[in-house]
Amino acid sequence: MNYTSYGLVNTQKMFSDALGNGYAVPAFNFYNMETLMAIMTAAQECRSPVILAVSESALKYMGSRMLMGMISGLGLDGKTPIALHLDHGGSVDACRAAVDLGFSSVMIDASKLSIDENIDITRTVVEYAHAHHVSVEAELGILAGIEDENTSSTYGNYTNPDDVVRFVHATGVDSLAIAIGTSHGAYKRKSDDEKLRFDILELIAEKLPSFPLVLHGASSVPGKLVDIINTYGGDMHGARGIAPDQLRMATSMNICKINVDSDSRLAFTAAMRSYLTQHPDVFDPRKYLGLARDMITQNCIDEIRTIMNSENRY
């Protein structure tokens, strides 16, 4: 089914507006009804465009019919900037299936292959997706860290600025995820002194002026959430994300989409651990799931306002 039937939009106008006005569109991952509700509540309260991101494993977890049933239940009208995005599609078939299902944006991640293989695979996805007016994101460079089945690597490679023009022109891709020091998971940096490679971002932005660039693995990993988890029996000592001031700087240099997954997981886990520890007699899931939903909502609002600068953009 075409995504317009669900009231979704692709990312073309979103990114154009973000680039022109110096902000980033948040791409928040979700995995169930509570996480979807949290993201939508935050986006509506802030009047922020939002990309609802779904990994292949999250799609498998929810099931395609349940997922699209929840999207249908949002009652979107196609006038608000909300996209449904396949995050880190691992194959041409996965991207095609997402397009056919009703996704308005897909990412093909062939970054671990040679650049020639990456170009060939990405071009194939672009040809199919563009025939359905679906946006396509690809990736150059490799992010280290583990967050999902398709986002697992023990090493990372920075994006080579000399490759980006050739890649974009050869594939016709709509946006490009680059590697400048972010990583997947909750353990992104060993110390607070580690900085993103803005020199690489600057070179890429110069070579691709006005082209949408994307940051993956860019959760800020709020210390207050980590502290709650550790206080109530968790063990996430040493978890450290990307500093908000660095993310804000990136939005002034062609980064118009920032992916957030770990922060929502942390908010969910913090709420669950604290509530169940403090209320050992409670066995009504609505109590603690509702609190988890609300904590994700507040974290999304905070990041929309303090990192993305995407509030009141429609």
By CATH, the architecture is named Alpha-Beta Barrel
How many strands?
10
Q: What topology, given as strand order, has the largest sheet?
A: 1-2-3-4-5-8-9-10
H/E element order? HEHEHHEHEHEEEHEHEHHEHH
What's the level 1 CATH class?
Answer: Alpha Beta
Shape: globular
Low-confidence segments, given as residue ranges, are 151-155
Q: Using only CA atoms, what is the Rg?
A: 18 Å
Characterization of this structure:
The protein is α/β, with parallel strands linked by helices and 314 residues long. The chain has a single domain, classed as Aldolase class I (TIM Barrel), CATH 3.20.20. It is 46% helix and 16% strand. It is built from twelve helices and ten strands. Strand 8 (175-178), helix 8 (198-207) and strand 9 form a beta-alpha-beta unit. The protein is globular and about 60 Å long.
